[in-house]
Amino acid sequence: MFKRILMIGLAYFGVTVGAGFASGQEMLQYYVSYGWWGVAGALVNLIVMPITAMTILQYGSCFRAQSHGGVFRSITSMVVAKVMDYGLPIARFCVGFVMLAGAGSNLNQQFGLPLWVGSALMVALVLGAGMLNTDKVSTLIGGITPLMIALLLAAVVYAVVTFDGTFQGVHEFALQHGTPALSNWFLATVNYTGLSMFSGIAMAIIIGGSNWSPRAAGWGGFLGGLIFSGLLLLMAIALLLRVEDVYDADLPTLALIDQINPVLGVIASVGTYLMIFSTALGVFYSLGKRLAAPWPSANRLIFVAVTLIGFGLSFLPFTSLVNNVFPVIGWLGVLFVAILLGTWLVSARTDISEEGLRRDKIRALLLYRLDPQRRWTPRHANALIQAVDESNLRARQLGDFLGPDLYREATQTSGIEISPEEQSELGERLSAMQREHRQSNTPSGSHAATQTKDDAANA
Questions:
Q1: Contacts of 6 (CB under 8 A, 6+ apart)
Q2: Is the CATH number of domain 2-349 1.10.4160.10?
Q3: Residues 12, 203: Cα–Cα separation, whole Å
Q4: 155, 290, 319, 381 - which has most CB atoms within 10 Å?
Q5: Whole-angstrom Cα distance, residue 15 to residue 12?
Q6: Mean pLDDT, to the nearest integer, of 121-150?
């Protein structure tokens, strides 16, 4: 369980950070420009973000979400759901081409390459990785995240160790020379919370939707949100301590690490580029998947098209994009966060917890049934079918959702040999078991009145 939570948390962190965070440009405009008041804002984010991330991933897991649209329609009114459903792709597309612009600035600042080279290379990487399935994309994003964290921590340690000024001095310099995103630190904090959640919300829902346990998905989201907000706080302090050296850089974090050692600066440039890649991939992959929902066969074509359009818009100045585009997206993100948190606190938290317990019970009973050393009885069958009936997913969906993890544990812990064909048929078998159980407990001639959820869905 811990390993799964860790991988979910790292994957979530990977899709949430982006060009602005990795480069330090967001920290500079949203926090450092307000001096030590900005650090207070980062502390507020440290409380809010983990809880919000937990909420988003739990929703994804509970509804087995393949896109954000299904979640929105399940928790809000149709009108609000449509606003959220259409607003998110538009805003995320804006985040996407800002990521590509950041990729160009990265290689330009470190290596002097033309802006279009870094952006074009990023487009090639995103298109290549986007041809993989969701699980492989999540694994890829989670796998590069530890390097990113290590590089950011190195910048923090260097800034603290080499600080030779005064706290009041850096505060006043930041207020005089900074470029604040909004009029005061509290509004900037609220706005950035919405922005940071918004940049990863669609891919986070998909990551949650690929994990059958809402509890594991939720704690993974909490861990990812905690990593993000903890690093945000540390980076805000580090950049404030060295604000006189980095306030006018497009990528202040990279400029800071480059002062440590030129070789480490090159490594940092590559690491920052990978962070940009992780968010750009999450944005364009989830956006392509959402737009292709009515035409599944055109999924890859639409993904390629939106990525190339984003490339065309990425030639605008990176710093200007962060300062003008991100605050607008941030307020839309605040609306989304308010709706998600509000519905979760009012009712969904209890419903999701109960659904998680049901899935644990279903999984335990199925493992019991697979074990040849145990005796399967009608009492077990009744308990299994009752839990399936009460689930928010249909029997076939549950079987397909639980199958891979279920059979993996059965093979590893009990040595049960299971063929790939048997694994792929679990959903159908669970559905048939439910149907047979209903029919055996229904008076003759009244089967039609008690169709199972699968029968009703297929009618």
A1: 220, 223
A2: yes
A3: 8
A4: 155
A5: 5
A6: 73
